[in-house]
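Retro notes (design track)

What went well: tokenization of the new backbones is finally stable.
What didn't: we kept losing track of which sequence belonged to which structure.
Fix going forward: every design gets posted as structure first, then sequence, in one message. First example under the new rule, 258 residues:
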């Protein structure tokens, strides 16, 4: 795989080139999402009239609906407002304003456009509502997009360029196909490395009754401890309705050093 080797070992220039391409892909996606968000906001402002009535239009509608459907001949709303020091209905008013993010964005945007694109006419609360609302909508759009781009990067890297195997397969969260290395050093200092693989791992486990028997790791001695390498049964768990994993191991690869 010469291309994969070049990407992995091609030096600083090759690594910077692919890093730049990866970064530009994310940057292009961010700019495209900003344009989509701007077009969406402009569409609802121009064709749906969002923000044309200023702030608290949702609360105004609520008051008209309440007055129409729930008449108050005893003037209980005014009395309740007096005894709560204005907490009613202001609490409802600001709660609705807090959740009416499109209106906050639209009203602030109309003010910015009317002032030639300057935000000098916006107060701190209005600016916070505008930028905070834009950030929320951008986050909703960007999160799945970034996940897709990074997944695409790992797909191309693993299948075509033959790199980033660890990152790609860890993202898949595959329980099976586990492997590890076993090292053997002989008396002459020669190192032999065995790559051992397990195609399927057990899913259900139970405690081995021999683990608490004499010679097992859970038996213990007078001091309550037994060295693991001296235990006849050092492992506490055994698979249920499956052969022991050590009986299913396969030698995937082997190489020697020295």
């Amino acid at each position: 795989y010469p291309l994969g080797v070049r990407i992995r070992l091609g030096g600083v220039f090759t690594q910077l080139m692919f890093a730049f391409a990866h970064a530009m892909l994310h940057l292009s996606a961010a700019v495209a999402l900003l344009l989509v968000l701007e077009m969406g906001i402009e569409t609802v402002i121009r064709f749906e009239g969002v923000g044309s009535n200023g702030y608290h239009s949702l609360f105004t509608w609520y008051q008209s609906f309440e007055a129409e459907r729930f008449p108050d001949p005893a003037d209980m709303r005014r009395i309740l407002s007096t005894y709560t020091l204005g907490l009613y209905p202001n609490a409802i008013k600001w709660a609705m304003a807090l959740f009416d993010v499109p209106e906050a964005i639209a009203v602030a945007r109309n003010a910015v456009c009317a002032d030639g694109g300057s935000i000098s006419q916006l107060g701190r609360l209005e600016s916070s509502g505008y930028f905070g609302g834009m950030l929320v909508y951008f986050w909703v759009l960007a999160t799945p997009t970034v996940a897709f781009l990074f997944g695409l990067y790992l797909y191309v890297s693993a299948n075509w360029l033959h790199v980033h195997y660890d990152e790609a397969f860890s993202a898949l969260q595959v329980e099976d196909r586990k492997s590890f290395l076993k090292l053997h050093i002989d008396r002459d200092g020669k190192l032999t490395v065995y790559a051992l693989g397990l195609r399927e791992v057990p899913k259900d486990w139970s405690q081995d009754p021999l683990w608490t028997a004499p010679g097992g790791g859970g038996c213990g001695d007078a001091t309550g401890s037994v060295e693991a390498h001296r235990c006849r049964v050092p492992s506490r768990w055994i698979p249920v309705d499956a052969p022991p994993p050590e009986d299913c191991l396969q030698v995937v690869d082997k190489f020697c050093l020295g």
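Added context from the reviewer: The longest strand covers residues 178-185.
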